[in-house]
Amino acid sequence: MTVNITEQIQEKAREILSSGQVELIIGYQRASDGVTARPAFIRKAENVAKLIFDQTCTHNLAKYAIEHRGKSMAIVAKACDTFGINVLIQENQIIREKTYVIGVNCPGVVEVSFGQVGDKLQYRCQICQEHAPAVYDYVAGDPVEEKPLGFDPYIKVKVLEALSQEERIAFWEKHFERCIRCYACRNACPQCYCTECVVEQIDPDWVGIPIQVPEKQIFHVIRAFHLAGRCIGCNECERSCPVGIPLSLMNMKFSQDVEDQFGYKPGRDPEVCAPLATYQPDENLGIGG
Amino acid sequence: MARIGIFLCHCGTNIAGVVNISQVREAVKDIPQVVLVEESKYMCSEMGQGGIREAIEKNKLDRVIISACSPRMHENTFRKTVADAGLNPYLLEIANVREQDSWVHADDKEAATEKAIALTRTAVAKALLNQPLTPKRVGLTKRALVIGGGIAGIQAALDIANAGHPVVLVEREPTIGGRMAQLDKTFPTLDCSSCILTPRMVEANQHPNITIFTYSEVMSVSGFVGNFKVQIRQKARHVDSVKCTGCGICWQKCPDLVPSEFDTGLGGRKIIYVPFAQAIPNVPVIDMPNCRYVKHLEAAKEGKKLPPCRICEKLCPTGAIDWEQEDQVLTEDFGAIVVATGFKPFDYGRYTEFGAGKYPDVIGLLQLERLLSASGPTNGELKRPSDGAHPKTVVFLSCIGSRDERMGKPYCSKVCCMVMAKQAILLKDHDPEIQPYVFYIDVRAGGKDYEEFYQRSQREQGVLWLRGRVSKLYQDNGKVIVMGEDSLMGRPVEIAADLVVMATGMEANDGAVDLAQTLHISYDTHGFMVEAHPKLRPLETNTDGIFLAGTVSGPRDIPETVAQGSGVAAKVLGLFSKDELATDPTVAYVDAMRCTGCFLCAEVCPYGAIDKEPSRDGRLLAKVNESLCKGCGLCVAGCRGNCINLRGFTNQQVIEEIMALCR
After folding, report:
1. Does position B530 have pLDDT exceeding 50, yes or no?
2. Which of A72-81, A209-218, B45-54, B325-334 is the least confident region?
3. Which residue spans within B487-599 are E strands per DSSP?
4. Residue A1: pLDDT band with limits 50, 70, 90
5. Sign of CA dihedral B104, B106, B111, B115
6. Residue B82: helix, strand or coil by DSSP?
7. Sign of the torsion angle spanned by Cα atoms B586, B590, B591, B592
8. B593 interfaces chain A, CB cutoff of 8 Å
9. What is the pLDDT of residue A26?
10. CA atoms of B552 and B30, how far apart (whole Å)
11. What gap in Å lies between CA B621 and CA B51, rounded to an integer?
């Protein structure tokens, strides 16, 4: 299977690069550790042999599409990555016409860290129920059978919700204590593309300079709010966090609320307006009883 | 260093009766950069304002804080005051210590004083960051759009046109005239409704400044006060209105009859028809779904054969029938829009205990109007719908779809009591042997000569008014049995009626909510459009340049509706008396260096005020259309990157205010 998808991607990449349809392929290549994957930027047809795809290809490459916006490019995207691409199309960050999406029917990716490849699927892949890309110009790989999950994908959120308010505050304070405000979570996030992030603005200075829990909390809460109804669950934030804060829990809580209230999952269709950006007079907000 | 002057208003005892002003004075006088604190019993009085002007000049103040009532009340007054003293009016800041303090904390004077100090301190913090702002000036199109061709719309159109400005009158139905055209007589004078209405219709039609688009609807509205762009869809009549002479041969010879909307279903109309004899324009419309030729064409598609008819086309002496005619969309410019789309009568079929609209001899007020009208389906002869018999006992039920929480209509429709009195008198006029009964909750006869009219129905005409509600109606042996209660006598009443009339209330018209959304104006839970202020600005909406007249904003009688039609014309003419309009400078602006072009701002903007402008690298970035922006701040709150700010209410100012409160 691995060989198959890699070959398909290489062949397509060669075709569209040499025909001049795109000037850049954003895909995956083997990292210097020899076992994991890293983003690849291929501009010449003779280099397409570097491209790979296997279960170590965890990155959401949509992030790089923003950096290269304006160029005609192709991007290798797993199902969840295509949701991110759709959100970026919806928010006018990338131009659909200039972006050739090589979608991958994704069987899920495994836990990786530098030099190490686990044998277990990442948690987000264990709860994944959509393995086919939502937007694509070409699809690599065979369709993955969609199996019923057998448990609530939001079970981790439910566990946290069951705690008392004090316990939840204690839970997050314990984690935020470790935060060093390196902003890796933000920088890895394909949905964080502001020219100047509010946490770095100085007039007004929304978030103070001290690396103390209140400032850290504010930063994470702002980010969670900014992602509400937009996070597609690629989990790049949590993967990139050097101190292991379970950021996905916060994002999942918002995703669950948006799905419950509006029946909306971001990135499935760029034509559907994001619910938090619009108001329909007949919408039920589930508030006030 | 700024030079701030603080002016503390007593507002008589409104503020000073609760807030300890001298304590406030002590607390704010030493705030850095404050050079002056003054008091006045009434700051808004000529003396108070004079004091402010004098103090500004004498102390060279460059910021002014007025600690008084809500800025909604007197901000404009005081802006003029400071401008008269040579200060930019946007350097003024108002601390609302009346509505937000003394009025709501009258029971706790100490806390109210503390809050007054905090609010004044907050205003100082904000004022320090105030920048001088200058309004922009834009031109305007002196041309009005009136939506709705009933009496309110006609009156407004005539008054505007008579003052010399062009008006376009758009009406959804094939003719203008509206509800008033359907009425027989009007209370309390009993003059014939169409006799007083049709001259106005003709006047509007012949007026050189009025263009009438009937059978047309407003599709979209963009732009802003003075500069609206409106798309109007003219539905296809399938009759060429230029060629048509209104001779009437087509509708005389058309072979089919369907229930007439104008006669509320009691009479019939042809498939090619004008709604009533005095219709304006006197050009018929073909009701395509019911037309034999259309049915013939559709059957032909399925391979079936039906006779093609086309009699109207064959007989038309001018060849005006045009089967190919299509809807036309016109885009027109206007400076002001008058909404006068009226009401519809409540559907009494929703009352299951009164037969759910299935008993033929239970009718609504408007149906009885048509039965009484000489131009109605019975030519003014009183015949009940079931068997055409002449009724002798007629029972009226009041408050059908009014004052009824159960139907979701808690409001009083205002005219029904008087309509019942009028109709009962008219019944007596038709045949003195008719006995009208009226079941009422209480009679509302507020209006000139109304009470007298109601009394007359009782004393001179012998109409029996029974105070009480009816619980049930049922049909029995050609009669409708009314089971009610006379609550004054405290006993049940049962009447075998020949005809029962439901006094149907006024409901928001079909499509009112859609129209309000198209126009970006507010509407209430009942679908009535909302005035800018219920008492002081009853004709304006919250959107500048869009006005309301008649029953579109709630139940009204004819005199009030006509008065509103004229009143709205005065509002439009006031607007048109200017050659340019000043736009409020407290609007949003985009920091293009930060903008990412995600256009969340455009999604959340209720006024469509975000334009897309290409940047140097070809990407589209947000730009605020300052004429459309109302300064609501939704985009500011929505923008994730904090790329939008509001002049006069910047994020920095709000943060400074919060900091001042926390100090």
Report:
1. yes
2. A209-218
3. 491-497, 499-504, 506-508, 546-548, 580-583, 588-590
4. very low
5. positive
6. helix
7. negative
8. yes
9. 96
10. 54
11. 47
Is pLDDT above 90 for B285? yes
pLDDT for residue A287 is more than 80: no
Among B595, B596, B617, whose Cβ lies nearest the Cβ of A70? B617
| Interval B117-135: pLDDT, tens | 999 999 999 999 999 999 9
Contact yes or no for B651 and A193 at CB 8 A: no
Ordered by where they begin, the domains of chain B are 4-135 (3.40.50), 148-172+187-227+329-342+511-580 (3.50.50.60), 236-326 (no CATH), 344-507 (3.50.50.60), 587-646 (3.30.70.20)
User: B486, B438 in Cβ contact below 8 A?
Assistant: no
Q: First vs last Cα of chain A: how many Å apart?
A: 52
DSSP letters of A236-278? HHHHH-TT---HHHHHHHHHHHHHHHH---TTS-TTSPPGGG-
A97–B contact, CB cutoff 8 A = no
Find residue B588's DSSP bridge partners. Answer: B646
The CA-atom distances, in angstroms, between A41 and each of A11, A29, A125, A211, B97 are 16, 9, 25, 36, 63
Q: Give me B415's structure tokens.
A: 């005219």
Site of tokens 């209330």: B505
Residue A284's pLDDT band (cuts 50, 70, 90): low
Q: What is the pLDDT of residues A240-272, one digit of tens each?
A: 999 999 999 999 999 999 998 888 999 998 888
Q: If residue A124 lies in a helix (H) or strand (E), which one and from where to where?
A: helix A123-126
B255-265: average pLDDT: 93
Tens of pLDDT, residue by residue over B599-653, are 999 989 888 889 999 988 778 999 998 888 889 999 999 999 999 999 999 999 9
Mean pLDDT of B359-369: 94
Give the closest-approach CA distance of A223 to chain B in angstroms: 9
pLDDT value at position A281?
Answer: 67
Cross-chain CB nearest to B641 (options A69, A92, A198): A198
Res A286: pLDDT: 59
The candidate with the shortest Cα–Cα distance to B18, out of B121, B124, B108, B128, is B108
Cα-only R_g, chain B: 31
Q: What is the four-CA torsion angle of B194, B195, B199, B200, rounded to 10 degrees?
A: -50
Residue B304: Cβ-neighbour burial (10 angstroms; 0-12, 13-18, 19+): exposed
**Domain ranges in chain A?**
2-140, 155-277
CA angle B648, B652, B653 (to 5 degrees): 50
Mind telling me how many Å the CA of A72 is from chain B's nearest CA? Answer: 14
pLDDT at A289 over 60: no
Q: What is the pLDDT of residue B356?
A: 85
Question: What HEC string does B607-625 produce?
Answer: CCCEEEEECCCCCEEEEEC
Mean pLDDT of chain B: 93
Q: Is B618 exposed, middle or buried (0-12, 13-18, 19+ CB in 10 A)?
A: exposed
User: SS3 letters for B465-500?
Assistant: EEECCEEEEEEECCEEEEEEEECCCCEEEEEEECEE
ipTM of the complex as predicted: 0.89
Contact of B467 with B486, CB cutoff 8 Å: yes
**Residue B301 pLDDT more than 70?**
yes
**Token digits of residue B374:** 């000489």
- A195 and B641 in contact by Cβ < 8 A? yes
| Cβ distance of A91 and B598 shorter than 8 Å | yes
Q: For Cα atoms A233, A236, A241, give the angle at the middle one, nearest 5 degrees.
A: 125
Structure tokens at B246: 């209104």
Q: What is the 3-state secondary structure (H, E, C) of A100-118?
A: EEEEECCCCCEEEECCEEE
Please give the Cα distance from A80 to A231 (Å, whole number): 10
DSSP symbol at B361: T
